[in-house]
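pinned: reference chain
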Amino acid sequence: MSKHTAWRYLAGYLAVILFGLVYASGAQAVPSFARQTGMACTACHTQAFGPNLNSYGRQFKLNGYVWGGNGSAFSRFGGMAMGSFTNTKKNVDNLAADNGWESRRFNANNNLAFDQASLFYGGKVFQQLGAFVQFTYDGVESRFALDNTDIRWADEADWLGRNFVYGVSFNNNPTVQDLWNTTPAWGFPYVSSPIAPVPGGNFLYGSAPAVASLGGQVGGASLYSMIDDTVYLEAGAYSSFARYAQKGMGQWDGGAVKINGGAPYWRIGLQKEWQGHYVSLGHFGFRADIQPDPTLTATDRFTNLGVDFNYQYLANAKHIYEFKGSYIREQQQLAATFNQDEPGSAQLNQQLGFLGLNGSYTYDQTYGLTLGFNRIYGNRDTVLYAASPTLKPNSEYFTFELDYIPFGKKASTADSYLNLRFAAQYVAYTRFDGADKNYSSDPLRSASDNNTLYFNTWLAF
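pinned: its structure tokens
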């Protein structure tokens, strides 16, 4: 595609942004949770819009989404839409064909996309029962599905001189119920290109831990408690939805995996807040026996052990500083994959590591700058990672993001039906599926050729 064509696509995307700004010129954004509480979005979020929570936002979620009694049940319903422009440093040949998107007519580069549109219910259901339920149309894969869902009941009590907030969460994505933006479901980056190449695309299990790979295909419940606003404990389990249920929820495809039995999940956290400083340290774990081939009884076992931390400076809303990190170690026992007639791996036991760090600065809860670093590494395997030039899944990349959130500073029901977030993101790879800039199985493509420039517009109401 010519440079002139690329500029025409980008100009069209910028025109969409300009139209959104003009149309929203009199609006302040406060979605359905804010309609219920009568508070501005800034009360719960470090920015005026987006999943990143502050202390009050974590407490609101912990207590089951039920605080506040404003508005009618209808006001609990809302929606969002997201569009984007994606450019990669080098064209991706057969992009649409390789991903089954021929009908969407994506180009080898410089793509405008309607990423998704969602309807959701967010807020109190009855007494101590609250919910966040999301139903999404994926504009890239052209399908409808039940998306992130967290239904919880919560209460609190004083016992033996201690305060306990306790509850149960029913959800369909491990870590979607988590309070901290350090685990997979709500971690940075909060938006990313649905079209650009990502690490692990040519591997059997990709390059994401099991705890991050089963969203929508599983259902589970966990019991939790926060003690004296300091110690957090949670334990639960997940199992795969039946095939007919996955089909009904739009989550089934021929390659869907199945958990054999129950998959335990646990979470431990410590938090402390003083004079505008907030710190949390945590551990989480997940273990699943997965059937890579639903027609066979053999399973592969995935054990995820993670640690995470979160620091926020919240004393001055004009200047918010944050630093987050997580590390997940995945132990794989590939009994099913290794023992096939044609083995899918050369080793019975494998290990992967996933490191994610990010730091951000937010001015006036309106302008945000974030720098992230991710590293994925694993053992050498001549079969499992045959698509890698080094026969390892190793990837390493930096993410730079600028955000602009113009609204969300006022608490007004009338203003709550339009909320905007604009993001400009650049992902720079120093290693991609084992390849670096000098070492690639394809001499015409190096790690940096996957560098991605991504512009995103996110509207919620």
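why pinned: The longest strand covers residues 143-159. Residues 3-23 form the longest helix (21 residues).
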